[in-house]
Design brief:
By secondary structure, the chain is α/β, with parallel strands linked by helices. It is built from eleven helices and nine strands. Helices cover 42% and strands 16% of the residues. α2 packs parallel to α4. It is elongated, with a radius of gyration of 23 Å. It binds ligand 9D3.
Length: 256
Amino acid sequence: MVFAIISIFPELLVSPLAEGIINRARQRGQIDIRLVNLRDFADGPHAVTDDRPFGGGEGMVMKPEPLTAAVEAQKRAWPKAPVILLTPQGRLYNQKIATELARHEQLVLVCGRYEGVDERFRAASVDDEISVGDYILSGGELAAMLVVDSVTRLLPGVLGCAGSAENDTFSRNLLKHPHYTRPRLFRDQEVPAELLSGNHRQIAEYRFLASVTRTLERRPDLLAREVFSAAEMTLLRRNHLYRQVLAVQREEKRAD
Ligand code: 9D3
């Protein structure tokens, strides 16, 4: 997979892309990340990439010519690559969108800055628009990082078999159970006895119930989409969680 990232601050992305799983995937040739400096596609002695908004108002707007030239240069190398603009106006990013993006051979990620990009560039050259959440960032660079990170993890061979298991658990719509490691006693706090029992069934049941309890408390919106097996429903009933889960599922479906 090739990621071309178009930005006025490509340096911002260098060190996060040079560590851990992403760095390993790059060194193995599983991904290729091209940091494209938008300024290289701007004309004139000052290589200006932004200008004041027509109609007046706050802030600056990214000029259409450098953006278009930068995108066209990438499209010459990879004609099939979708052009994705990172913008607060985009569709809200999630794991499903990550799996969609992971099917492409190349992606062109355009990082917005200032108030945004000229509308004529967006209309003519952008295939998809993504926001990474309802909070204000200074620009699209960190959002592009999230996309590169989450998509890279989905590529075959990047994580190995641990990865496929992890992707499965995300598709369950339940939060993970709490984790414990040594020591068994830490500042008067014991590790739950179920996890020390060596009984795999007891451990699995403990973790399932802890997952459901956490999801009820923290992310009831996720539970609405979760389907439980007959055995799981029995477990929930025996542990007095069944009525609560049903109530939350009814409530959240109404809110949908
Ligand atoms: C302070 C400027 N805001 C005026 C009310 C609008 C605004 C413009 C540009 C807010 C943020 C940005 C820069 N953000 C992005 O380019 C961005 C972003 C984000 O801010 N949140 C979530 N996802 C994304 S993807 C790109």
